[in-house]
């Protein structure tokens, strides 16, 4: 008996029911990965929770090497926007592309792990059984040769985020909230240039627990490092002054719509 079309594709499976095409969308695990050097684009993104609109036809384009900063108060839709771009939240309408690869549209939703992007959120999730250096090294490629070369990047990240001794041997539970966020941010970008996920970076108030002056300084240093690669960066924050100090392009979420400065 002939196999049914699509049989054996283990990573292609029915997606949860959605409001757009109930039962028809597919969750895609493996397809062509977005490569560095392209733009991050979203078109017509809309999302509502229990009939309360959060995002209304949001359009954005972040070119390679650009930093787009999006500000807005709590519950304005910033984290929802990041989640949709990252693939952890399914929009009610709209599409997402990265480096000309479609990640979200009416037919498919590519898994977060296969979007080739890095996401850093407010809540730093670290391995409590390993010290600062080991947690940062987790962001290196698994290839032994690249990990050996990457040891220098770990030391560089610890210096950049002011995590050198005596913090280097500390476990996450021994760190402050701001220090844990710095470790998370360092882990996110340590693999750049070594084959790590680097087609785009999404930052959802990544250093919100750090004092504002230090936060801006550390993010400026991080962006200088990221700027060596053709990577689009999206930074969201409730602090419009922070966005103004860090982002080359700025926008605000106002009643669910993205308004550019």
Describe this structure in words.
The chain is of the alpha/beta class. The chain folds into two domains: 49-117 and 199-261, P-loop containing nucleotide triphosphate hydrolases (Rossmann fold, 3-Layer(aba) Sandwich); 126-197, no CATH class. The chain is 26% helix and 26% strand. It has a six-stranded mixed sheet with strand order 9-10-11-5-12-13, sandwiched between helices. It has a four-stranded antiparallel sheet with strand order 4-3-6-7, with helices on one face. It has a three-stranded mixed sheet with strand order 1-2-8, with no helix packed on it. A hairpin with a 2-residue loop joins strand 12 and strand 13 (257-260). Helix 3 (144-160) packs across helix 4 (177-189). The longest helix has 17 residues, at 144-160. The protein is globular and about 50 Å long. Mean pLDDT is 86; it is low at 1-24.
Quick summary of this structure?
The protein is α/β, with parallel strands linked by helices and 261 residues long. Helices cover 26% and strands 26% of the residues.
């Amino acid at each position: 008996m002939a196999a049914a079309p699509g049989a054996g594709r283990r990573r292609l499976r029915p997606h949860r029911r959605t409001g757009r095409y109930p039962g028809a969308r597919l969750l895609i695990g493996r397809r062509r990965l977005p490569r560095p050097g392209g733009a991050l684009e979203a078109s017509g993104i809309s999302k509502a929770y229990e009939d309360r609109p959060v995002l209304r036809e949001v359009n954005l384009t972040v070119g390679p090497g650009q930093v787009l900063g999006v500000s807005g108060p709590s519950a304005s839709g910033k984290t929802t926007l990041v989640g949709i771009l990252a693939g952890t939240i399914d929009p009610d309408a709209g599409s997402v592309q990265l480096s000309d690869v479609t990640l979200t549209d009416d037919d498919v939703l590519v898994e977060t792990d296969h979007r080739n992007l890095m996401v850093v959120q407010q809540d730093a999730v670290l391995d409590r059984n390993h010290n600062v250096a080991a947690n940062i090294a987790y962001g290196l490629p698994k290839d032994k040769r690249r990990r050996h070369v990457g040891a220098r990047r770990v030391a560089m990240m610890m210096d950049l985020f002011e995590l050198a001794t005596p913090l280097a041997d500390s476990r996450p539970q021994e760190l402050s909230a701001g220090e844990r966020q710095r470790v998370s941010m360092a882990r996110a970008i340590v693999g750049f240039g070594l084959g790590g996920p680097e087609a785009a970076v999404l930052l959802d108030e990544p250093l919100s627990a750090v004092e504002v002056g230090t936060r801006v300084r550390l993010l400026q240093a991080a962006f200088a490092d990221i700027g060596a690669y053709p990577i689009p960066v999206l930074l969201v924050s409730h602090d419009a002054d922070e966005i103004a100090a860090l982002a080359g392009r700025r926008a605000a979420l106002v009643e669910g719509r993205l308004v550019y400065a």
